[in-house]
Amino acid sequence: MPSSSPFFSTPPGSITVVTADGPSGPRALVRLAGEVDVLLRDQADAALAQVVALGLPVVIDLAEARLVGATALTFLVRCEDACSDAGLPYVVQHVTPHVARVLGALGLDAVLRHVEGLSTVSS
């Protein structure tokens, strides 16, 4: 594909995992940025494997997520499940109003352990 194509001129998005110090010790900080859709499916799988291997409390940061497609939604649910199974704290933060509407409309705010900024929080 030509690099000048409007569909391929910039990367669609990213999912990154880093370790960071938090108020109660180290944690896995997962950032979803840009358009997190089917093109990032392999990246989502790798990020989930990394989160599980770290065995740390997880913070998902959605501040830079412009689009949350099925890949992002699946990642959120799978990450919550993995954290629940391992007994690890899990939180989703910096949820934009658009993403909050998507999560709420799909009932995913009730599936997630704790989503900061949504009117419905399930613990």
Automatic annotation (TrEMBL):
PROSITE patterns: STAS (PS50801). Gene3D superfamilies: STAS domain (3.30.750.24). Residues 29-123 form the STAS domain. It holds the Pfam family STAS_2. InterPro entries: MlaB-like_STAS, STAS_dom, STAS_dom_sf. SUPFAM superfamilies: SpoIIaa-like (SSF52091). It comes from the Bacteria. This is STAS domain-containing protein. The lineage of its organism: Bacteria, Bacillati, Actinomycetota, Actinomycetes, Micrococcales.
